[in-house]
Amino acid sequence: MTPDYFKTFGIDLVQGRAFTAQDTASSVRVAIVNQEFARRYLQGKDPLQQRILIEEIIPGVQKLGPPIVWQIVGVSHNVRYGDLRDDGAAVDVPFSQSLSPGANIAVRTAADPAVMSRTIAAAVHSIDSQVALAHLRTMDEVKDESLANDRFTMLLYESFALVALVLAAVGIYGLMAFSVSQRTQEIGLRMALGASRQHVTTLILREGFVLALLGLGLGMGGAILVGRTMHSALYGVAQLDFLVVAFVAGILLLTALGRVLPARTPRGIHRSHAGASRRLASVCDV
User: Fold this and answer.
1) Residue 189 in this model has a pLDDT that exceeds 60
2) pTM listed for this prediction
3) CA 110 to CA 100: how far, in whole Å?
4) Side-chain-facing half-sphere of 45: CA atoms under 13 Å
5) Are 26 and 98 in contact (CB under 8 A)?
6) Strand pairing of 30-34 and 67-76?
7) Taking Cα atoms as reference points, which of 171, 184, 180 lies closest to residue 215?
8) pLDDT tens-digit readout, 210-230
9) C-alpha span between 52 and 38 (Å, rounded)
């Protein structure tokens, strides 16, 4: 890294100093580690009092060279370079002290980054016209590319979830409709014996509400288990989204209770009521 790297990306140092122009190839080799590195490998020791050994990277040679001593001079906040799901341990060293054959240039601008490509290319070519810029992207594009697989996976999950919600709603509606139809004669008999519509409605709603709550409780347990899996598989997904769970639970609850209402089938209840009254009258006559 060059001295302005941390400033360009807005990375704060929690301890020590950043690189300076005095950190040259002939000076003491220095390094900046992140918080995860200090937590994982230094185990409570003062990072600024520690040195680390890193095998030398020799351009054009696959085999690593001898270990080189680097003095830790700073600790930075964790930055997720490759995997956005995990804070990896990282060690940064000055550009002038590294023999890495490649180089990346970062530009911070107040203007639209997408229109800065020509300006950046002109600045680089003014130093070396033989250098070609490759993979010129904004940070938003870098982030979008890294999340492309997650977005595709999320689209599949959303499609499966929508199909599951429709199937669950249709299944609950059909089950409740069958349950109410099986009790049509019972409802008619109750009304023939003097039960009011409000009493019958309350009875059916209470039983349907208990069944719906039992199903929602079991579904909540499954949602928690699935949420943990999605949290580990997808970036930025919480283990349990209470808003989504409440929305789905409300839809299924309304589906269940909306079908068990006797008021939804007044003709059937009236017919059952009339039939039950005639049977009851015939029994009384006998």
Assistant:
1) yes
2) 0.61
3) 30
4) 13
5) no
6) parallel
7) 171
8) 777 788 788 878 877 777 777
9) 11
pLDDT, tens digit (0-9, with 9 covering 90-100), for 91-148: 999 998 886 667 788 888 888 877 788 888 888 888 888 877 777 888 888 888 878 8
Which residues, other chains included, contact 14 with Cβ-Cβ below 8 Å and sequence gap of 6+? 35, 75, 76, 77
What is the Cα–Cα distance from 117 to 106, expressed in whole angstroms? 12
Please check whether residue 95 is in contact with residue 2, taking contact to mean a CB–CB distance below 8 angstroms.
yes
DSSP string, the chain: --TTHHHHHTPPEEEE----TT--TTS--EEEEEHHHIIIIITTS-GGG-EEEEEPP-TT-SS---EEEEEEEEEE----SS-TTS----EE--GGG---S--------SS-GGG-HHHHHHHHHHH-TT--------HHHHHHHHTHHHHHHHHHHHHHHHHHHHHHHHHHHHHHHHHHHHTHHHHHHHHHTT--HHHHHHHHHHHHHHHHHHHHHHHHHHHHHHHHHHHHHSTT--S--HHHHHHHHHHHHHHHHHHH-GGG-HHHHHHHHHHHHHHHHHHHH-
* Alpha carbon distance 102, 239 (integer Å): 39
- Is the four-CA dihedral 280, 282, 285, 286 of positive or negative sign? negative
